[in-house]
From TrEMBL:
InterPro entries, A to Z: Bact_Transport_Assoc, DUF418
Protein name: Membrane protein YeiB
Comp. bias intervals (Low complexity): 429-439
Pfam families registered for this protein in UniProt: DUF418
Region described as Disordered: spans on this chain: 429-452
Domain DUF418 residues, every copy: 254-411
Entry keyword set: Membrane, Transmembrane, Transmembrane helix
Coiled-coil features, chain-numbered ranges: none
Organism this protein belongs to: Schaalia hyovaginalis
Transmembrane regions listed in the UniProt entry: 21-43, 63-80, 131-164, 170-189, 210-228, 234-254, 266-286, 306-324, 345-367, 373-393
Amino acid sequence: MSTSFTGSHSIRYPAPDLARGFMLLLIAVANVPFWTALFPASGEGGAADQWWVLIRQLFVDHRAYPLFSLLFGFGLMTMIRRRRDAHVAARTRELDESAPGLSPEARDSWIAGFEKEALESGRALVRRRGWWMLLFGAVHALFFMGDIIGTYALVAVLCAGLIAGRRWRLMIVIGIVQQVLAFAMLLFSEFAAESFANTGMYTANQADNTTISGLVGWFYPLIGLVAWVPSTLFTLVLSQVLPAVFIGAALATTDLVSSPERHRDLLLTAGILGLALGALMGAPHALAEAGFLESAPTGTAALHEFGGIAGAIGWLALLVLIAGPPRERLGAARTLLAAVGKRSMSAYVLQTFVFIAVFGVLGLSGVEGVNPLLGMGIAVAVWVVIALACWVMEARGRARGPLEVLLRAAVAASAARQILPGVPVAPSAQAPMAQASGGIEEEPPADRETQD
């Protein structure tokens, strides 16, 4: 049984790690079309490719990143909660040792102050982590303009206070307003694109004139970084990321993940209905993308996008059910998935470099196009190679991947000293925290990795 960052007695639940590991497989499959689109030919393939595109559209495309968002929100709240528990417990122990004679009212007042300290500490940790993630995302964008790390970094920076303070009502309002605006904007963009296409001045073939030379050219990193900036902002505004992060944060306050054996029926129902609803909402767009329909009605792309959060909830429910409760042995498949999940950022970024190598070699070898089934096979193979590397690290006792280690060190090194009020030292002291004088300067604790 693995343990969490908070200490040797804190259980690390397998579900988040396992879900992240599987999520990275979905992301690899979903990202392949970006790379195959860089080839001169489309590589459409035959009937089998059509069916695969349909399946991918129904269950993978725009379903993987909302799953990522759910897990990210879960990780942020878990980090905040465990930091809070550790801080309040340590400060309360200090108070009881220094002033065992405090009245219950005075003691409660001090503990309430400790809660506020922990809230501020958690908020600062999440925000600081977000700024560093933004830098990581910018560097990654030099190689892959579709980087998603930057979007989650913005969520951490902008929403740290909401999540740390558990301001659920405000999160609900923000989520609803953002989704309504996003849906309206996506509908408008579809209508505008259709109207423009009807003028005869634009065709789909004109939209994609990028070739493999763009991938290996010296200017690609600059293009990637420039494109990443607006893409990161648009993803935050137009996608399911924000509400999914809020839902994931709320999930961390329940025992659905920590004790899935108590909720088997609920998880199974949510899994089946979530995937079914996501597929139903995405079906018209998916059928058109796969070539089974000549065209889809305007608005179906937006509907497909908004079905993603239902599909992501379905995937997460089933993965939590499969992961089960903490135990000594997870089994080979679960261990492999969890090994990837513990190193999710390293695995995600490594996917980019392996894809560059594979598709770069194919392009330079004269391959004109990669059909969808072959692309899927490449994605799975890339994920397997990375998963085996993660498994080797796990077997050798390396608890984190290289980027997780780097992020942890950067977040810890940039932590500011926190000034804390000194606790009363006289057993008879009855002063509440607000009236205490003096204070102590606390070294910032090392920022710890969590199940994010």
